[in-house]
Design a protein that fits this description.
This is HTH-type transcriptional regulator NorG. The protein is of the alpha/beta class. Helix content is 41%, strand content 14%. It has 15 helices and 16 strands. β1 and β2 form a beta hairpin. It starts with a helix and ends with a helix.
Length: 468
Amino acid sequence: MTKYKTLAEDLKKEIQSGFYSEKERIPSLREIQNLKECSLTTAKEAYRILEEEGYIFVVPQSGYFVHPNISSVISGPQNEFYPAVEADDRIQQIMRTVMDPKLISFGAAIPSDFYLPLGGIVSSFKKALKHKEIFSYGDLQGNPELREWISKRLSIQGYRANPDQIQITSGCTESITFSLLSSTEPGDTVIVPSPIYVGLFQILETLKLKVVEIPYRKEEGISVTEYEKLIKRHKPKVFLFSANFNNPNGILLSEENKQNLAKLSYQYGIQLVEDDIYGDLYFSGTRPKPLVSYFPSDSKSPKSYLCSSFSKTISPGLRMGWVASKNGIRDLSKRTRAYKISENNPTQMAVLQYLKLQTFERHLKFLRSEYKKLTEEYIKLLSFYSEGILEIQKPDGGFVLWIKSPLDGDKLLTESKKIGMAIAPGSLFGLSKHWDHHFRLNVSVGFSPKIREKLIQFSKLFLKKRKT
């Protein structure tokens, strides 16, 4: 690639990232020549390409500016800043439909009962009820044996946190909430990837936090260059993310990407809150390390929090999660006690009894195999019966599909209800309008003949719309 084409591509990425906003003036030819250490001819040719492709326009005597309709030419969401999040009402309204028991819910990221070890859990509750101490308040940080089990397992995954550095919580959402409570104040700025789990916006709104969205890029995950520019521009307090099989797009960040993001966060003093709830559901290879495992552990290190739960692997109704933090658990535990005296003792004991059966790893192996197979079957069927209209992003793990379609996601939800099913529209997973033509589908619903027929009907909705 020639020098001027390389420069043009670099400038496109900067515009795509939102580093330069719509209608904002960009450096002059002379300024870009100095900034990029290139010749004036190279700069002129690069700017010519940007003009031709609709990225910039020139105002005589004033300079070059980002095109006012830049969103129509970029391939992904810009890095947009939101001084306030107002998502709760919209989310609640749509989620009521998604969770309607009269519909087959392909929209909610809830594992089907078939993929849960319900028999083992029932037996474990019976064993737990024999322990009289479960009817009293327990340890303020959670059952010590359960924390020790989590500690040992985290160590195998590459993150060494002792039992005293772990807090049991009522699910992963609560883990994230308390982590943010411990690392921010109202009015602080948080960087979040886009798209990302819908429930996080409700947390951010409640805590009155400002938000900057950084997109997942297909080629590299989260761009380190974009991340650094956002840090310099917005001075965020926290980076809130999911590095392993992000919900909804299933992306797994590479080890190199994780290392670079951890290094940059440490350098600028950014605290990390990582949602690792899908980390055990990888389709191939070995269990990926959490990003926080690459964060240096020393007295100067910003706080980092690793959040997860058993909701996606054992049972969502148990509401049993945890936070691991090498330097922030004391403050976090103090905050949890302001809301409740202790965790649910009977449930903690039941989960511990199940884990002692030593069948958890076998269960996870079953889940990984089943979800990989279901993912492949869903993609094959949807692609065939929609005649290739759908752009399906193949995930690296988890049990949801992220799909782009020619139809608006909110309207697609209305159409899908007519055939007795529900999907999760893309508008739920970001604050910008970029995901309006996307939707999420839960493959753990299964692949029975009834489900297969329902998916075929759903796929044909796109053909009908194309004909009209």
